[in-house]
């Protein structure tokens, strides 16, 4: 018998409106189900632009190739190490007069670098020591975004390029104050025999908080999406800590040379409530790279007892007393705290009143 022609039912033909409708609904369902794992995360904040990334990479490369661990080529007799103070701010520096007293009479032992809002012109008190310091080429920053990581790395890179005598790098904010004299901090870091600081810099530890058992660790790890940090950063190696640190030169160099982990941390967050990249990147990287070279504690005191919206306690003028300074210095670590935050601008007069007889009297 001759073969009979085979016909599909009209409702199953590809051209059937029913099939198109069914496939459309199926596609929408699959996108809803698997989209978050496939599509890039949407953030409330922009990521790092390609232009900024290229510019930063050029800066970091320049810092890594021009920075030398030796100083013999400088031709300096009996050089003394310096501390680079890195101010990360988007406003004026309200405590500039207090910092001026801190730095006074310690020339050639420190450098100051400032990263600020590029659209803002900083104003300083007349004759302020901070006024003539190095305001580095800056980019806009925003909370819950990787821009704060980039800003800190720019500060490190510029400080490394600017002066090879910088052996420590202290990151502070506009709301930070010193809790000790410059002399106390300088000799706590370098000891009394500063001439040996260059020969022993490979042993210098970094003072950075590194925590592995925080209650919010899982939420922070998943801030960019479930398993997004893999394979470079397993959850077991993810760490958190304070945004503010004091890094040794060798660790500062490691940070600006790093590329692998940055590819993950530069991704935008979808859960901004748990997104604090600047508190995650540095502790995680240094914990993975050189945990024994870090103290795992910070030298900056912060009061989180009544934090609001991710911000720590803000001290007001009426709270500024000698007793407060003494209590903020206390720590459970080798050193007392060097710095403290957050202080409101109206604290300046009260701080200046007790500066010489309390803060800078060690």
Automatic annotation (TrEMBL):
Compartment annotation: Membrane
Main location: membrane
Keyword set, alphabetical order: Glycoprotein, Glycosyltransferase, Membrane, Transferase
Domain of life: Eukaryota
Organism: Cephalotus follicularis (Albany pitcher plant)
Pfam families: Branch (PF02485)
Keyword Nucleotide-binding in annotation: no
Alphabetized GO MF terms: glycosyltransferase activity
Recorded topology in the membrane: Single-pass type II membrane protein
Protein name: Branch domain-containing protein
GO cellular component, one term: membrane
Entries under InterPro entries matching the protein: BC10-like, Glyco_trans_14
